[in-house]
Amino acid sequence: MEKIEHINYIKAPISKIYEALTTQEGLGSIWTTDLTVQSEVGAISDFGFGDDDHVLMQMVELTENKRIEWLCTHSDPEWIGTGVSFELFERKNGVTAIVLKHFNWRELTEFYQWCNYNWAMFLLSLKDYCEKGKGLAYQEREF
């Protein structure tokens, strides 16, 4: 099994980052504007990326200001059955560390590599949203 793993440091309170990762407003500002988010364990959130490309994520864990985990139930076949987690850690001087993991990939493919890049962009968007008030959702990116 393969795993994507990134860390980033955000100069913002841990609660602000947790809120950005668990709300319609936050995820709509940093990931995609076409979404329906339900922030309760067991609920399914729908993230749209154009041309009928939808990712359905089931909320597996919500530990306030500490950990969020999703299970992909519908998407590209390479994503189905994979999990995405966000772990948050307070550091000095108002900085929060975030560790993003996308795990249970069956193999390392070109799509895996493309997603690895895009998860790094997701973390940059999250950082900009939490520090500057403006993220970069999918619909605003140039590919």
TrEMBL record:
Pfam family, one: AHSA1
Activator of Hsp90 ATPase homologue 1/2-like C-terminal domain boundaries: 11-130
SUPFAM superfamilies listed in its UniProt record: Bet v1-like
InterPro entries recorded: ASHA1/2-like_C, START-like_dom_sf
Family classification: Belongs to the AHA1 family.
Protein name: Uncharacterized protein YndB with AHSA1/START domain
